[in-house]
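Batch queue: ligand-bound targets. Current item pairs a single chain with zinc ion. No template structures supplied; prediction is de novo from sequence plus SMILES. Inputs echoed for audit trail.
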Amino acid sequence: MKANTPALIFQNGTAVLPDRLVPDAVVVCEKGRITAVGPTRKTKVPRGANVIDARGGYISPGFVEMHVHGGDGADYMDGTEEAIRIANRAHTRHGTTSIFPTTTTGSPAQLDAMLNACIAVRRDWTIADGARLPGIHFYGPYFAEDKVGAHSPKGRRDPVVSEYTEYFQRGIIKIATCAAELPGAEAFYKAAKKSGCLVTCGHSNSSWTEMERAYRAGMRHVDHFWCAMSSVASLRARFGTPMQASMEEFVLMHREMSTEVIADGHHLAPALLRFAYVMKGADRLCLVTDSNRALDMPPGEYRIGPEDGTMFISDGLVGRMPGGPLASSIMGMDHMVRIMARDTKAPIHDVVRMASLTPAERAGIAKKVGSLEKGKLADVLVLDRKLGVKRVFIGGEEFSTKRRA
Ligand SMILES: [Zn+2]
Ligand SMILES: [Zn+2]
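Prediction returned. Tokens below.
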């Protein structure tokens, strides 16, 4: 926002703070930052400000997405600036204002193209591009062979030091995943931690012992809880008896471990969403979409990842691989927020925290974004009473939510 732009005030709505709701609130923004939040009767507003009427709905922080593959026909692994922008804009229409494009399995050339395209989009960002791109989630290709899930097994490999060292040097990777049982995982985690990443274990069949070693190397997060991860049963197949504790027990036992759920209503039943929320709490559980290119596209056949990726069928609600396994989600963050609120009965401020401040904290960007707090960027949503996205502001500038604007 330009220095001479008038101040913005959001009013006539309930402000969603990390720990409570403020009914009849006003949020004041100046020069692209939040300068005051409080009840209308107690908060001073500058003269001549542009007034945004929330019409009795919610004034919410913009959503922060840490695990997402694409949208509106584009996958980040298409590796072009256009694809990155198309997917980012699609997610912005669903309320996401900070996004971490996520790699899948793929060749070094495909990963290189994806990283370069994201670097260019971040460098040349304008409001027309939608959500800001604070970094990349380096997710594939270091998955366990038996937990590749919907991703192409061809592009999977064990960690390659020369490969990831070079990627980390580019300075855009902020979240880094590797399966803990792979040879070289520990060195990968240490390198990721050294580059300031949130270090995560995913697409893994690792045991408690392997998780302990990973934890000592800096691992603090597990991708999409209950999906493509170990369980007592899966480890019994690996080690026999006595049965071994798995990633599940490790995450639930360690307060410092965070995780994420795909709350699209298809991956996890209400009791599991509620269980994850109660066990980890709103400050350790993140909502992610894990959405792919079929978001906002008609039902049909789509591809996960780069040009030699795997195919799946979208029915307009969820994607499935041949034979029935789920192929990530095809919904935006606003949908996840609505399903989480419906299925867990958690307070709205907790649900919104899981889609904003918690992922921002875990990914290391909470000083700038993630909540309606004085000094943070004016990334603000106007939601209706049913948590539908009405208007989206990034750094105090409004993003046009019309498709292909
Ligand atoms: Zn996954
Ligand atoms: Zn994913």
